[in-house]
Amino acid sequence: MLIGAVALAVSGWTVFSSTGDLPGLGSQRINPSLFIPEKFFAAAKTIDSAIPCDETIRAGITSHHDLASPLIRQFFDCVSHANQPSTIILIGPNHFHAGNRAVLTARQNWETPFGVLETDAVLVDALFQSDLVEINDSAVAEDHAAALMMPYLKSTFPRAKVVPLLLLYSLEREDIAALRDLIRSNSTDTTLIIGAIDFSHYQAREQAARYDAETEKFVREFDIDTVLRQGDEHFDSAPGLALILSLFDARTEASLIDHADSSDFGASPAGVTTYFNWIFTRS
What integer pLDDT is reported at residue 12 of this predicted model? Predict the structure, then answer.
């Protein structure tokens, strides 16, 4: 555990939060992250040898659901194989519809059990120039689409910085295009895009599998228009998925690492959440 930090158990989570200013950070405040040791250290699912983990990965998608920790670990094991990004742009849903703008980000650093994860403040400030983006550290830190991912990011890429972006489900196509252009103009070859997105919700396992088959087709074909017409039966962030797909094109190869649903990890099959691990490699 970090010196000068405490771990607080809240509703089954371990919340890492600072007891004061951390050494070397002056008076800078710091965001907590969410950490569940028994889930975080669960054995990763096996990676098929045909998956191109040894290539340069431009983007990826994994879950933000702690139940799917073996799948999240599998994703990071693959992405870290041959990639050491300087900045990670983390894209997920704004679960609680917080804030006053369509996109929330955070500027403070993040406390994790593996050390402080720094925010790319230069990139955050550049994105904040848009009327779309609001800096709202407290709202982002309270959303598991961001906070759950921070220990994975820090432990996997200890020198990388992060920029979390939480998107409202109502984000319009033109705003997604504007955000895409902002990200493109402020990214480098060492920027990695990670989507923290869960897929079919509230469906029986058999029906969820049918929706997921459709989703797989949307992703492989980079079919943004169709993605934006779907609801929770397909995924919990249509704008987030559309944004990731819009950053690239069909010349980028989309590879499916794995697919599962919450019943694979002990939940009831009567109403599941589904998960995909995707990577997007350079053409």
Answer: 42
Read off the amino acid at residue 141: A
Q: Is the pLDDT of residue 48 over 60?
A: yes
Indicate the length of the chain as a whole number.
283
What is the spatial order of strands in the sheet that 109-112 belongs to?
30-31, 109-112, 115-117
Order of all β-strands in the sheet with 274-281? 133-135, 103-105, 161-167, 87-93, 191-196, 57-62, 274-281, 253-261
Domains in the chain, CATH or no CATH each: 38-281 (3.40.830.10)
pTM reported for the whole predicted model: 0.91
CA separation for the pair 265, 130 (Å, rounded): 40
| Dihedral angle computed from the Cα positions of residues 180, 181, 183 and 185, in that order, rounded to the nearest 10 degrees | 160
Closest by CA position to 115, among listed 23, 190, 12, 27: 23
Query: Which residues are CB-neighbours of 59 under 8 A, at least 6 positions away?
Result: 192, 193, 194, 195, 244, 247, 248, 279, 280
